[in-house]
Amino acid sequence: MERSTIVRVHEGLHARPATRFVKLAKGFESDVELVKDGKAVSAKSSVKLMLLAVKENQEVTVRANGADAIEAIEALIGYLENPRAGLDDEGSPPSEDAASRSVAAPPAESAPEAITGLRGVAASEGFAIGPAFAHFPPDIAGQGRTLQAEEITGEIDRFRAAVGTVQARMDRALTQDSLSAGDRGIVAALRDIAADDSLTGEAERLIKGGNDAVSAVITAASTIAADFSAVDDHYLNARADDVHAVGRQICLVLLGQDDVSLENIPEGAILIADDIGAWDLARAPLKRIGGVVCGHGGATSHIAIIARSHGIPAVLGLGDQINALRTARDVALDGNSGRVIIDPNAATRAEFAARVEAAAKERAGLTVFKTVTPTLADGRIIEVAANIGSLEEIDAAQEAGAMGVGLFRTELLFMRHMHLPSEDMQAETYTALAKAFAPYPVIVRTLDIGGDKPIAGIEFPDEENPFLGWRGIRMCLDRPDIFKRQLRALLRAAVQGNIKVMLPMVADIDEVRRTRVLVAECEAELDAEGVPHAAFDLGVMIETPAAVLIAPALAREVAFFSIGTNDLTQYIMAADRLNPTVAKLNDVTNPAVMAAIELTAKAGVAAGIMVGMCGEAAGRPDLISTFVKMGLTEFSMSPASIQRAKKTIMDIAAES
Ligand code: PEP
Ligand code: MG
Known about the structure:
20 strands
């Protein structure tokens, strides 16, 4: 028997969701398969499941055959439709959670001109300098000998015992309290690969064909890793490294060797490696590691995730350049720009040491502001909120002490997927946000996208000047099918918390009025369908010169303003925000831009509506005081800037 459904697992059946799905499937006696696009794989193999590359919002079929087929289908379909109700014993879900819990470093200041160095992927922010700890374990080679027929059974036994040993080690690691929830999930995913019959089955097949166990494991791991590399998905590509890491562990046991250990890494050392298995890194004394530099890896690799979640600056993906670091004595790295400097001279050394110390001191001194509610001498509360773009960033925002979300950029939701996100999926996302921050507000910005950032499902025209073209509210009003889906989802989510909605790129008051008509239509539809919904405050971003000039009229029609200084600066100054040649003009402190901000604030204050700011300038301690004097009462910024901004406001209050 079989049943089909649309997958609602956020990000699809990647490592951990696949692990959970397999765990559920293994609880049933029946043979269970998952089918996508006519291809069926065993639901009891996480590797096969991952390689099926099932993405969110895709249709799949669960097929079961056996005594408990009905129950199996029920449970597995239930998980695919509502993953949160599924198993939850592998620690906190997605790795991306951990990814967002990075320890903030101060904004990147460019390294001195004189410094030259290597450049890789800036995978985990922050500065580090310290002694190099080169970790280049020797490659493992198979014996390359053909087994005699009578040796084969013994070799298979040896291989199975080695797999058992590796699994047992990983199981033991999972019981250690010292392992963070994120790392536990990663180790659990590796253990799953070790237990999966895709790898073990392929290796056994090769041994039966006369290969020695080590050669068989190396070949099997390469085959499966190549399958992962071939999938059109960055996250799954990174799983190829995991397969190699597991293969290596099995080989080491077969050879009776210990892996080169990271246990003795000195305090503050910079770990240099071509590749570090997530398994090795998760077990390493992470507190002692000052930074990580690797030849392999990218921003979504497990190494990056672990580094970010532990606040370890990392530069990955250096490729062959890593060989230049094999003999380095000391290394300085800038995880914000991806720069690595070998054996830095005294000046660089001093500069990096100062940056590291300053960042640590500042971080430590600011943590007390996490729970502070910034209040001015006259009793006015200034809200310091977070700019985020995905649910994975909620933790980081809350960790920093965000008083809600001042800008939820919904573009990522649309760009991450192969299809336009469904109303249900959007409603779930906005609801999760509203619940996470209630009673604080969550300001969701409606889709702000144009031809420079194409997304699946929307055909953008070729435009000479996409920044002056069919984007933001303009595109949404022309595509009510897309816009209404988002508005309906927001109305539904508003039942669950304090949702506010903000329109981007507004230049004409008619855009607000037409949006209100669509909102009313959505409300009527939801009423007729009996779907619970609630009204939300509607505001606008002030980021075009036109919006500034009609601010008094706009203020009479909306509940709040949020000044988008990034676009406002480029449009006021007619200086492309992405063009380095005009970067000098692209300056928010230019009197023209400051005058536009002041005009906006005046109009908002006169109309009695909230005036906030969500462009980059909102997080600048040198400007906050001026903006507060203009009448702004809300500042939204990247979580890393929140505590510093709260302190700045408290300093203003103390001085007045
Ligand atoms: C802005 O323009 O200031 C803003 C916050 O929006 P974005 O950077 O997403 O365009
Ligand atoms: Mg903008």
